[in-house]
Amino acid sequence: MISDRGKVTSITAAPGRNRGRPSEMGRQVDCSSLPVDPTLRDTSKVAAAIAGALIVGTFLIALVVEAGFGANARRWLAFGFAGLPTRPREAVSIFRHNVRALLAVAGLLVVAQTPYWAGEKQPGRSHRLVRGAGEVLLAAAVAANVAVVGASFGAYGARMIRAALPHGPLELCGFCLPLGLYIKGRNQPIPVWLLVVVAALSLAGLAIAALLEVYVTV
Questions:
Q1: Contact 192, 63 (CB under 8 A)
Q2: Secondary structure of residue 218 in the 3-state scheme
């Protein structure tokens, strides 16, 4: 800088001062280490990966059942394929059933987000244990559902595939999107706007799927 006498003075600290301490000037912040809020695009990618894994698992179970357990599966499932009554009440009932299943994912997400809402940076040990127990129960429920659906496809083949259309893919998206959000938010805070958007998309998908299941057949 220029002094009042016109002489140039150095901005360098005097020798011995701040020795061993990094200079404040030129210090750079490593942004890669900072947490990044998940986006809808990130959540959708995880949801798509989950959906793909569930489809593959269902397909493999269907192959096994078709190969040697078709008759036993048909006796156990005993699907009549009589169709559903085309009444609004039936669609509402299906929607309510799917929402109740969705509440399990929502409840586990609330458990995962509670420490962050309380201002904590990381969940404690007891909280991780509760979260882990919930994840085991949720995984067991998802696995059981995949097993039943896979067995039904293996037992009834094309007839069951037609019965699952056109509502099936929408139901899958309606469940996988919240699951993707949980995976993104189990170890980091989720912005409120993303919670609202995912909830709205999931509920809308399940509502449309319920209407299609009742009023549209393939």
A1: no
A2: coil
CA–CA distances in Å: residue 218 to residues 55, 158, 215: 20, 11, 10
Tell me how far apart the alpha carbons of residues 218 and 182 are, in angstroms, rounded to a whole number: 33
Torsional class of 81: left (φ above 0), alpha (ψ -120 to 50), beta (otherwise): left
* Residue-range domain boundaries for the chain: 39-215
**CA–CA separation, 25 and 150 (whole Å):** 63
Q: What is the distance between the alpha carbons of residues 73 and 216, in angstroms, rounded to a whole number?
A: 27
Structure token pair of residue 105: 């994912």
Structure confidence by residue, pLDDT tens digits, 1-53 = 444 444 444 444 444 444 445 444 444 544 444 457 889 999 999 999 999 99
- Residue type for position 138: L
